[in-house]
Amino acid sequence: MQTSSIQVSIHEPRSKRGEAEADAFDLQQLLDLFQVAAFWASDRRLEDLAVAIAHSSPVVGAWHDGKLVGFARATSDGVYRATIWDVVVHPDFQAQGLGRKLVETILSHPHVHRVERVYLMTTFKEKFYERVGFQRNNSTTMVLHRQPLAEL
């Protein structure tokens, strides 16, 4: 597939969109994309995805013939820190520059473009992110693992 036929668009959170756009982002397609291309997100639920997207900005989707083929989102305080989450590209569209386009779209967004430090976590794609400009960070990263609210 050629990436020239792919439309990359920024999704605004519900609070910034009109009612006519309330269903503009197809969560079922996102869940399907995660199941095909993201082992680390294959067990997510629609309800939880809706909450995550509502609290993220920017949220970027890549569409080909009405089908979601790429996705990424970020959270940011707009000045000091931002984190990129859930960068995923359908296997049929990988190695064509779409992942780079998703990340660059996030990095150029007003909520992220002037942030002092942008973080992300990756399992096997360090080299990809290094090509986009990220550097490995050897400082201590700490994680608090919690049970999802639904299981408490």
Question: What does this 3D model show about the protein?
Answer:
With 152 residues, this protein is of the alpha+beta class. It has a single domain (3-151), classed as Aminopeptidase, CATH 3.40.630. Helix content is 25%, strand content 22%. It is built from four helices and five strands, in the order E-H-H-E-E-E-H-E-H. It has a five-stranded mixed beta sheet. The longest helix is centred in the first third of the chain and has 11 residues, at 27-37. The radius of gyration is 15 Å and the shape is globular. The relative contact order is 0.16. The model is unreliable at 17-23 (pLDDT under 50).
Shape field: globular
> Can you count the beta strands?
5
- Could you give a short account of the major beta sheet? 5 strands, mixed
Read across the widest sheet, the strand sequence of neighbours is 1-2-3-4-5
CATH architecture: 3-Layer(aba) Sandwich
- H-E order: EHHEEEHEH
- Write down the CATH class: Alpha Beta
Low-confidence stretches: 17-23
**SSE-based structural type:** alpha+beta
User: What is the CATH homology-level superfamily?
Assistant: Gcn5-related N-acetyltransferase (GNAT)
How many discrete domains? 1
**Helix fraction?**
25-40%
Residues in β-strands, percent: 15-25%
Overall pLDDT score: 86
